[in-house]
Amino acid sequence: MASVTLPNILITNLKGIVGAYGGLVPRLLKGAKQDQLPILTDAWLQIKDGGVAGMGKMQDGLPTENSLNQDVYDGAGRWAFPGFVDSHTHLVFAGSREAEFEDRIRGLTYQEIAARGGGILNSAARLQATTEDDLYLAASARLDQVIRMGTTAIEIKSGYGLTLADELKMLRVIRRLADNFPIRIKATFLGAHAVPRSYPDRATYLKDVLSWIPIVAAEGLADYVDIFCEANYFTIQDAAAVIETGAKHGLRAKIHGNQLAISGGVQVAVNHGALSVDHLEQIGEDEIESLKLGKTLPVLLPGCSFFIGIPYAPARKLLNAGLPVVVASDYNPGSCPSGNMPLLWSLACTQLRMTPAEAFNAMTLNAAAALELEDSHGSIAVGRPANLWLSAPIPSWQFLPYHYGTGAQMVDRVMVDGAWYNGPRG
Ligand code: NIG
Ligand code: FE
């Protein structure tokens, strides 16, 4: 196979590099430190062999080293940003759920819609009836779209299959995305997403899900396990069993918890060493204390609160408690049909009351840790892979979340591992 040589790229005249690290990059930014976002203004940025080779101030002169065979790109008026890391999505799904959207506007709740056969079971029925190729095509179009909005690493869950064959089908689609797209993709097995109607009870389905974990692990189809730990779905005992079974087979856990009620989901995730616990719209002091005692990362999903009209997670309380906060999209057809990270940045600022820097760190540097990608994603750092994007000319980096709704259009070009992104390979 002919080896592909990446061109060296020198980007000049940038208004600034956001999340710029010349030396050591922190693994996580917690509490007050989450407001620290290093910016190098009036800068050049050099990319070599897929990685960040150097950065500096224009006034100090351009680098003379490695200047042969170099593409020079004039970044006048633009900012370089680290690529977003979206650590929680359900991007593989069949069809859409506009009817439920309208039902909710007319007054039904997410839970009432689910009880009527809508919700996750609705998406599962459609997914089961969709071929692997068609699922791939739809997911591929969505993934291409989110990359063009600045996402350079993403987690994608199964969980609309709800049979072994269909869960494996979803996971194979995720693997095919990973094979054909240059960005990093982590796969999560979420067999315990809802109890299918064909089962007599929850416990019987859970037993099956637990028996599927070794199969999924043996096929190398997942990095993580997950469970929807929530009233009418799965219990904290079920969550403990999923986390422990996953661990036995080398899969760490990322748990859905405390979205609809104070459920013990946070405590079970922390006590069993989950990598993250996601949602947290319903938490109090006990949950915050638990998070402080453990290493499990709190992941907030404000797009879901925005879309289905549930409370927002108390981001400020988590930050005031000295915790590292992560923000992700939850891109899925039911509770958040959007993977638009620039818009989410605005929501994190206006609704979670996070500063632009806190929110951006939550979607980049801290989010990378929530996917164990902290060495390659979430910052623009010398010696690290170049996963970043350039904005259109804008007056300040904060202009992007401020001028809400148009942020995605301000993502001008995206670089993945040192090469400009121009679509999937297949
Ligand atoms: O994170 N609650 C579980 N999963 C999604 C919703 C899935 C759906 O409604 O299809 C969530 O909100
Ligand atoms: Fe989710």
Give an overview of the whole structure.
With 426 residues, this protein is of the alpha/beta class. It folds into two domains: 8-82 and 378-420, Urease, subunit C, domain 1 (Roll), CATH 2.30.40.10; 85-369, TIM Barrel, CATH 3.20.20. It contains 15 helices and 18 strands. It has helices at 98-105, 110-115, 119-128, 132-148, 164-180, 202-218, 236-248, 265-271, 285-293, 302-308, 315-320, 341-350, 356-363, 365-369, 399-402; strands at residues 8-18, 20-21, 39-48, 51-57, 70-74, 79-82, 84-86, 151-157, 184-192, 224-229, 252-257, 276-279, 297-300, 326-327, 380-381, 388-391, 411-416, 419-420. The strands form three sheets. Strands 1, 3, 4, 5, 6, 16, 17 and 18 form an eight-stranded mixed sheet that branches. α8 (265-271) runs parallel beside α9. The relative contact order is 0.17. The mean pLDDT is 96. The site of N-(iminomethyl)-L-glutamic acid has 12 residues, from α3.
